[in-house]
Design goal:
Layout lengths: L2 E5 L6 H9 L4 E5 L10 E4 L5 H8 L3 H9 L4 E4 L1 H4 L4 E2 L12 E5 L7 E6 L1 E2 L12 E6 L1 E5 L5 E7 L2 E9 L2 E4 L7 H16 L1
Parallel strand pairs: 1-2, 1-3, 3-4, 4-13, 5-6
Antiparallel strand pairs: 6-10, 7-9, 8-11, 11-12, 12-13
């Protein structure tokens, strides 16, 4: 059995993520102790909350967490968790992990936040295996803006603003949507992540 650490930095929606991951016979450990992330087998950064508060929670171990992810610790950042993979955000003060060079910007759209189901294009990465024409659930007012396009593995669009829907750096993935709220496609994506993390 592997230890999946679900980091609680004061956000919501932890129960549904934990339940979806636990289907794989893993032990899902919910903790607010950021230090525990370094010793986990798999790290999940969940996603409802504010960048500044979450970045402050990670500040004491930012360098060590970034080093662990770079060294191969499998990780998944969901929405805000994806934003924390970047260097900084227009949403608030503080520094992200800096695993992905670039910053998080506000959506350039008339209706913000972007709430509801939306299509995702691309998806050539194994994270999207078996998912045909994915339609996934979004709840965001900010999006990642990587300094280099090579890390982008899928795109989406809200009004006229096209933005990265998923990114990858090594064995760490970030998704702007909420797979735990995205029905069968979202559960398949979490299944794929767990298989990739265990391989």
């Amino acid at each position: 059995m592997r230890d999946v650490l679900l980091l609680d930095y004061g956000v919501g929606n932890l129960h549904s993520i934990g339940k979806a991951l636990a289907r794989h016979g893993v032990h899902v450990r919910l903790t607010a102790e950021a230090d525990a992330a370094i010793g986990a087998d798999i790290l999940v950064l969940p996603g409802v909350g504010a960048f500044g508060a979450a970045a402050a929670k990670l500040k004491p171990i930012r360098g060590r967490m970034r080093a662990a992810l770079r060294a191969g610790l499998p990780g998944l950042g969901i929405c805000l968790g994806m934003h924390l993979l970047f260097e900084e955000s227009e949403e608030g003060e503080g520094r992200g992990l800096g695993l992905i060079p670039g910053r998080v910007r506000r959506l350039r759209a008339r209706r913000v936040p972007h709430m509801g189901w939306n299509t995702v294009a691309g998806g050539g990465d194994p994270l999207f295996d078996g998912i045909v024409h994915p339609t996934l659930y979004f709840a965001n007012g900010y999006v990642g803006a990587p300094a280099a396009a090579e890390c982008i593995i899928a795109w989406s669009q809200h009004e006229q603003d096209r933005f990265p829907a998923a990114v990858r750096q090594g064995r760490t993935w970030g998704v702007q949507f909420h797979p735990e709220k995205s029905g069968a496609d979202g559960l398949r994506l979490l299944d794929n992540f767990m298989e990739l993390a265990r391989s």
